[in-house]
Design brief:
mainly alpha; about 0% strand; single chain
């Protein structure tokens, strides 16, 4: 295998676990966001004063814990997307290599080599 193809394959092997973890983190935070909102709404409801659903929801969205969770989700998404784009670039490098190899075989075949 030529050195041209080894680099992207090595990258994909080396970073597969990191990409999987980044995706898992992002998906977890995306779903936990709903749980956190519900917990904060319950917290507001249990504060002793009667509140409307809208007031509880506003409390949840404005709460520092919720904002921090959103920041974590932003970071997790950024990490996942960066790795996904790097993986796509590595996949494209493999496809380019395969195309070159096929072209070289066709050329050799055309000249009877």
């Amino acid at each position: 295998m030529s050195n041209d193809i080894e680099k992207p394959i090595h990258f994909m092997r080396e970073y597969a676990d990191a990409y999987a973890k980044a995706k898992a983190d992002r998906v977890y935070l995306q779903h936990f966001r709903k749980t956190k909102k519900a917990l904060l709404m319950i917290e507001k409801e249990n504060c002793g004063k009667k509140t409307t659903v809208s007031e509880r929801e506003n409390y949840a969205y404005a709460h520092l814990d919720y904002k921090e969770l959103l920041e974590g989700l932003r970071v997790a998404t950024e990490v996942e997307e960066k790795l996904a784009l790097d993986f796509r670039a590595a996949e494209l490098a493999v496809e380019i290599w395969r195309t070159k190899q096929a072209n070289e075989r066709a050329e050799r075949h055309g000249y009877g080599v």
